[in-house]
Write a structure and sequence with these properties.
0% of the residues lie in helices and 54% in strands. The chain is mainly β. A five-stranded antiparallel beta sheet has the order 2-5-10-7-8, with no helix packed on it. The protein is elongated, with a radius of gyration of 21 Å.
Amino acid sequence: VMDHLQVFVASTPLTNGDFSSDLGAWSTDPAIRAVVQENQLVYERNGAGYPGFLVRQNLVTEIGQVYEVIANVIDNTKVVQFQIDGAPALNFREANGQAVFRFVATSGTTELGIGGANSLNASFVLDDVEVYKASPVANGNFSAGLASWSTDAGISVSVEDDRLIYERNKARFPEFFVRQALSTEVGQLYEVTADISDNNRVVQFRIDGAPMYSFVPVNGKAVFRFVADSTNTELAIGGANGLDAAFELDNVQLIMPDPIS
């Protein structure tokens, strides 16, 4: 017997970001070459002049909302430029990697444009383009040190190369966490993701003091979900199953999935 079955997908204003429907939902400026092969967009600027060198999609957005754009870039020969409503938002220069940036929507419709810059023969391969409402987590990539995070007194915590370096340092329960208070919506489902490396015990995630998820592998991505029951939710992360627990932490994020109706 099965009851109250719900299936969730990540809430995103972008359609066909994995190119599984060929170029469906995307428009392409006339002079460029853009084809889909093996569910990846293969882009060539093909001598196209500015500003007609983009693949584009119109997004339904909320005025004042912060959005995060994520995309996998492969075989980039020059610069992949991401534009929001015609204005450059990110110039991605690596040959391969993940492009990430944020923008604030100023209208109910926002145009995302992606194209090869700095050369008329720019080319790249694109996949897994995603747009999410930005995470309620502040400084989840630790680029601002420990800003927005609090640390329990007994632990040893530092930030190196934009990663949190955690040592439990024999701190006793329950004071062995780094913490952040999040602004949340009552009844909203949230998904927490975080990159973990060099974990020697168990990384425990807590929501409002209750254990929600225990991450055991040495390296990998922690993922779990919770439903907020107040407008202020505490996320806590610490080393469990050993007073010598240690790990490194990066890219702590929340997204808000929506149920399929």
